[in-house]
Amino acid sequence: MAMQFHRTVEHLEIWSASADYFSFVITHDNPAGPGFHGRFGYVASWRPLHQSRGAIKIGGSPFKTFADAEDACNAMLINLTGLMPRM
Fold this sequence. Notes:
Blueprint: E1 6-7, E2 14-19, E3 22-29, E4 41-48, E5 56-57, H1 66-81
Antiparallel strand pairs: 1-2, 2-3, 3-4, 4-5
């Protein structure tokens, strides 16, 4: 089952979701303007939900679309948990 991302901060482009003891965050980076500065695109990261550890960027970030970043998070969740996707 795909995770449902929700907007975390009203005035910034940050979305989060959690599942199976893991937390996932997607941010929109832009080299200019407000918000996160970096290469233009959607950056996805994950970390264990109940541990005080830094986030790990998901390979392929930044992604061109939010959907691509969301798909990468769902694929990482499958990889981390060893679960097969439900059809």
